[in-house]
Structures are given as structure tokens and as C-alpha cells.
Structure prediction request, 603 residues.
Amino acid sequence: MIRSNHFSSTLELNSVSQQVLSALPGQVAIVNESGEIVAHNAKWTSLRELVEEKWAFPLLGENVLNILQYPLSMNNDYALRFIIAYKSVLTGENESVKVLYPVTLDSQKWFCLTISALEEKEYFLLVNEDISDEMEAKSNLTDRNVRLHLSEERYKDQFKNSLDGIIIAEQNGKIFNANPAACKMLGYNAEELIGQKREFLIDSTDPKVIEVITKRDKNNFYHGEFEFISKTGRKVLVELKNRVVKGEDGTSHSILSFRDLTTIRQQERFFRKLFNSSPNAIALLDIEGKVQETNKSFETVFEYQDFETKGKYLPDLIVSETEITEAEQIIEKVISGEEVSLEGFRYTKTGKQIPVIMSMFPIWNDSETEIASIFCIYVDHSEQHHTRKVIEDQLKENEILLQEIHHRVKNNLAIISGLISLENFYSSDEVAKQQLSLTQSRIHSIAKIHELLYDNEDFTRIDFQKYVSDLASSFSKSSELEFISETSQSILLNVNQAVPCGMLLHEISNLIALRGNSNPGSNNTVTFNLSVLEEQFVITICEPYGRSLFDFMNKKEDRLASELISVLIRQLHGSIEIIGKDKTCIVISFKKRDKKGAHSAIL
Prediction:
């Protein structure tokens, strides 16, 4: 007799019953009406080792419904089914029921629990069996069916939407199906083709038919060109792939996939015409850089016959020894998928150097998975190269000529300055000597512009900051005032504006220097500041005499300087303003222009 230490209920089993209980397959337990386990075999005990701890499989004296606490907390649907099945046997609604349930979260372990009522329905027999292998097999079969269904759907989609024509024929040659692309190429609809014999689409007298069938039957596959007969009787040249496949039932089908070569052949003829008639030298290479074919222009430009180039490594034919490595690197780039364009020199059969523009690019195979060949174009621009060289030489000559002109202008101005200096030396009139010195100083300011142009590579613009810096240094040396340029960065000014602007600054600086320092104890610094604001060239000159410069300019003896300043301002299309109280600042402003050309007359 088996007793429970935790419950008062008991169940007496004789030795035979105990042996039967132990011999039953699976994990077996007997419960009373309250669900308490009153007996179980040894296999039932092993359940706790097979499942997750959270399931808490009950043992002797424990309630079988304890197994449902965890799945019920997870709203597990299988736990609800177990309760319904258990109650249906308990109430006598069913003599026996089976419940399938997983006991791991990943559903890798499955059990089948059979609940049966014993005699007088005081006790109930629970037989638990591990059906994980059966469930896995069933799952695999389901997955296989799903994959098969998806494969069929993909096949149908590819069959329908393929750009290539596809015809499926039975072993006896009868057409089983045809996709829209095949119907379009041949001019039929699917209903007109299905059920027809293959002779419906081919010329039976064509010897190519026997070749296709023989090769297909021998290798189960054929790939080559073939001609179908369209509905209008027109022959349609196609690239044909014919394969024999066997189904699961052992029946064979012939699958014909084909693409129309008519357009391709037209394009090939057009390409061939362009290739042969192109004025540029063209070479077609294999992926090793060896010549497959050249056009007539290549033979003309590089002086080779077709048989002399075919199969030869192209760099060995038209590249100098010193440039072989570079040419090999270019071919490697193209083989890797790059397109290369550059200018350089190539050589004819006789060693003549030719300037060319080279373009090399890869040609991919039909499936665009690998490079099949290399296309090379050489544009002979000997004439353009010669013309460019002539133009460059002419420009260089013009630059030298213009440089010489500025040099001679500077020298001529120096001669004039020298003559004035002699006249000044022999003159006894102090007023005349002063005017001659002023004139000589004005000539120096113009000569300085030409000197900067002579030393500069650009003969249309000068660095005006450098001119102002030299001007300030010159007046600092010849007067008792200190002239300073506060601008350090380079500011370029067109020669058309540089000459009048330079003369303008010279006249103003000269007036300030002649005025001198009327207050020896005060600041004696004169500053120049250059700036460009929204295309406006602004020059600010500051000196420490209040409005003395304005008064000095209006003296009768300085009317020439005043008139020159007005003329130069008009020529620059600018403005001049004198501002300040304790300190005079002269602001000159005009629009900066970059127009090239000769300097216009001052007056």
C-alpha cells in the first residue's frame, strides 16, 4: 500500500498493480478526485529534470494542478486547455482526453498528457509522454511545405515578369506553358501556344534543330543561337538556353529560355560601323591588356597593320620604356572597374611621338558580374598641341614685350626726371626750383607704378599696399613727418586705377609734407589705411593738424595741386571727404574694377 505523508488519502495497490504501473510507457500518475497524486511510477519523478523549474511538476502527495501555476501566470493557452480537459473527465463528460502542451519557453520540449477515469471514477490515470521528436518532425514538414509554397510563388513571379521568353514543353514536344515575354516576341498569346507541338514555332528543315536536340539530349542542356518562326512568319533570332528537368513523379520537361537578338545584332552592326569609321584610334583589349582588335584609325595613327597588333601587349607597341610601369598601372585600374582619362604621349611604330588624349574603360559581360574586355580610345591632338604651343609662345613673347614696355617707360620717366633735375640745378629762381621739384616728384610716383609692373608676373594689376608702403617710406625720409602704412595684407589694384590713385596719394602726401609740423610738440605721424568694402576701394589718410590741410589746399599758390586732385578723383569716378576735429582724416572711395587694358589719359 502506498501512503502520502502529507495527505490523509491512501491508495492500496497490490504487487501486480505496482508492476503494471511501473511498466506503463511514459510518466504515469494516479490522482484522486481532489487532484492529489496518490501514486506514480519512477519515470514521473524524472519530469522535474526534463522541464524548467518554473513548471514545478508535482510529486506524491502534491496537487496535480500545481503544474499550471506558472503557465497560468503567463496567460498560457495550453494551461487553459489542460483545465478544461481535466474537468471534462472529472465531471464524467469524457472518459478520456489528450492534451498537448510545451514545457519550455522556446517550445523545444512537448508532452502529450492522457487523462482517463478509473473504475467508479474515484481515481484518475494520468499518462504523460514526450512527443518532442514528433512535433519537430511535424514542424519541419510544415516548414518544408511553406518553403515549397514560397518557392512556387517566386517561380510564378519570375516566370511572369522575366524579360526573357520562357516556354515549358512536355517530353513529347507539346507546349505546356509560355510566359508573356515569349508571347510578345513570337506574336502569340498563351492560349494559342499551349497545346501546340514545337514544330509550330520552328522550321523543321533547319539543320540547327537536329543540332539543338542532339546536344540537349546528350548533356541535358543547350546554349547557343537559334531561330524561331513568329506568328507573322518572320524569323526571330534568339539566344537559346534549353534544359531538361525531371519532376518528382519522374516526368521530364524541356525548359526553353531565350532573348531576342535582333536588336542586339542591330546595335552590334551600328557599333561596328562606328568602330571602323571613327576618326579616333580605338583598340579593344582582353583583360590581360592584349590587343583583340583595332580600327582603321589606329592603324593610321600608330602605323601598325592589324596582324601586327593582334595578340600583342598594347603598352609594348605604343608606350616608351620609361612609361611602361605607368601604363600597366592604368590597365590594372581599368580591370578593377575604374574608368581612366588622361593626356600624354604615345609612340608610332617608327618611334614618332604623338600627343594624345586617352580614355580607357571596362566592358562587362552580359550578366555584369565580371569584366570581359577593355575599350581604349586615343584622340590624336597633335594639331591642337601645336596650336596651343604657338599660343603659349606668343603669350610669352607678349609678356616679355609688355615687360619691356614698362621697363622702357620707367627709364624714359627717369630720363625726364633727370632733365628736370638738371634744369632745377641751373635755375636761380626759387619758385621755379620748387615747382620743378614737385613735377619731378610726380614723375617718380608714375615711374614707381611701372617699376612694380615690371617686377610683377601680372602686368594688369599691382600690389597697391606695397606701393603705399614705399610712398610712405619715401616721404618719411624727405620730410620732418613720419608716414606709416597701417595695411599689411596684399590688395591688388588694376593698372587703370593704380596710376591715377598713386598720383592722387602722392599729391595729398606732398601737401601734408609741405605744410610741415606747425606744432612741434604734438604728434607728427601720418597714417595710410587701405580696405575693400563691398567692391568699394577705401583709402583713409590721417594727419594731426585739424583742418589745416583743407585750408592749405585752398591757398592761391596751391591751386594746381587742388585741381590735380579734383581731376584724379573724377577719373576714378570716386569721392573725397575731409572729416575730423582734432585730427584730419581724408577718406577717398571709388569702385574697384578689374577691367584690363591700357591706362587712359589723365585729363
In short: The two ends are 140 Å apart (CA to CA). The chain has five domains: 2-130, 162-264, 278-380, 381-457, 460-603.
